[in-house]
């Protein structure tokens, strides 16, 4: 559920970056969010992800109240994906009942990361430290990378997969980098490719390979078959992701009127669909490959194993 497309950051890859002034901005009101959350319950989903740009209009208190409300009105697991927020915010939201936090590290190559991910003035962006801290606070942690960022080498990608393992991630989300025309990586100002033969391609096949390798490196992690993959191959991308190592899907719950405003990359899958469409679509796709739709919170087997130990 994409609750706000307002963002303080200016990442060189992302369509909702602050520098994109062609975009109408929105932040969903509480009641609209709660209506979607109850829709998730009706669909028998076990968890809801609240995702937004790094929107400081989403205050510590407001989000804590919202998480409390979701936890008291529903049995859903709550996952947050709200960017690089302060320690105080992250602790308050955990105390309010949030279960999981997602923040991709995007690439483990520090130089490449700094190039495409300008920091906020005076604050160092260290997503590895952030992920370790989230784990310490008690969240299940999810992260991941984009595949085929201009400048990303095979060595970088191998290091990324190694980092999935050393971070002991509960969730690993990967998808192809898709150039967006309103971003530096899309309009040519920042398209520094790696030397010939070293540049990772941003292809569908490469994405399957990374999903498969992530599954081997992290047998117990939740791995979604992502929307970016479905964007490159709408007919069968989700199914092939699930067949090659992914085990979860994240059907979109965002009300239709907001979807087009959350285009982090162009031609994003599910833009013209409703939450009900996506539910039916995912259901059909899962059944079509001989799988069953699971029930429950979808806690990562990784986390369950640790709890039992
Ligand atoms: N192409 C593919 N993925 C992107 N993301 C952001 N911009 C793009 C893009 N142009 C991914 C990032 C981010 C997640 C929410 O979406 O990995 O963490
Ligand atoms: Fe949204 Fe298929 S999941 S249309």
Features:
single chain, binds 5'-deoxyadenosine, 10% strand, 40% helix, 309 residues, alpha/beta, binds FE2/S2 (inorganic) cluster
Q: Give the overall form.
A: globular
Question: Radius of gyration, Cα only, in angstroms?
Answer: 18 Å
The level of helicity is 40-55%
Largest sheet: 6 strands, parallel
Could you describe the 3D structure shown?
With 309 residues, the protein is an alpha/beta fold. The protein has helices at 30-42, 60-73, 87-96, 110-116, 127-137, 154-166, 184-187, 204-217, 227-232, 237-243, 256-259, 275-288, 301-308; strands spanning 2-4, 47-52, 77-81, 100-102, 140-147, 171-176. It has a 6-stranded parallel beta sheet with strand order 1-2-3-4-5-6. Helix 6 packs parallel to helix 8 (204-217). FE2/S2 (inorganic) cluster binds next to helix 12. FE2/S2 (inorganic) cluster binds at residues 251-252, 270, 273, 277-278, 281-282.
What's a quick, concise take on this entry?
The chain is an alpha/beta fold.
């Amino acid at each position: 559920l994409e609750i706000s497309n307002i963002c303080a950051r200016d990442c060189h890859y992302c369509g909702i970056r602050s520098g994109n002034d062609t975009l109408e901005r929105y932040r969903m009101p509480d009641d609209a969010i709660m209506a979607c959350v109850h829709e998730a319950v009706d669909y028998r989903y076990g968890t809801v992800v609240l995702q937004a740009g790094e929107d400081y209009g989403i205050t510590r208190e407001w989000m804590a109240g919202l998480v409390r409300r979701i936890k008291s009105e529903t049995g859903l697991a709550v996952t947050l994906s709200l960017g690089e927020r302060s320690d105080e915010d992250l602790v308050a939201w955990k105390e309010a009942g949030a279960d999981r936090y997602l923040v991709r590290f995007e690439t483990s190559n520090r130089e490449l990361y700094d190039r495409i991910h300008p920091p906020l003035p005076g604050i160092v962006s260290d997503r590895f430290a952030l992920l370790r801290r989230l784990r310490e606070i008690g969240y299940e942690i999810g992260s991941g990378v984009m595949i085929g960022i201009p400048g990303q080498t095979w060595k970088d990608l191998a290091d990324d997969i190694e980092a999935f393992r050393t971070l002991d991630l509960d969730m690993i989300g990967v998808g192809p980098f898709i150039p967006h025309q309103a971003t530096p990586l899309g309009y040519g100002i920042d398209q520094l490719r790696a030397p010939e033969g070293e540049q990772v391609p941003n292809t569908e096949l490469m994405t399957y390979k990374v999903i498969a390798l992530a599954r081997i490196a992290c047998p117990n992690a939740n791995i979604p078959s992502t929307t970016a993959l479905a964007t490159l191959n709408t007919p069968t991308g989700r199914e092939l992701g699930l067949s090659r190592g992914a085990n979860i899907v994240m059907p979109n719950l965002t009300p239709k009127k907001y979807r087009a405003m959350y285009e982090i990359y162009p031609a994003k899958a599910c833009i013209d669909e409703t939450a009900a469409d996506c539910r039916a679509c995912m259901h059909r796709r899962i059944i079509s490959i001989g799988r069953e739709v699971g029930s429950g919170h979808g806690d990562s087997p990784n986390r369950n194993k640790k709890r039992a130990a």
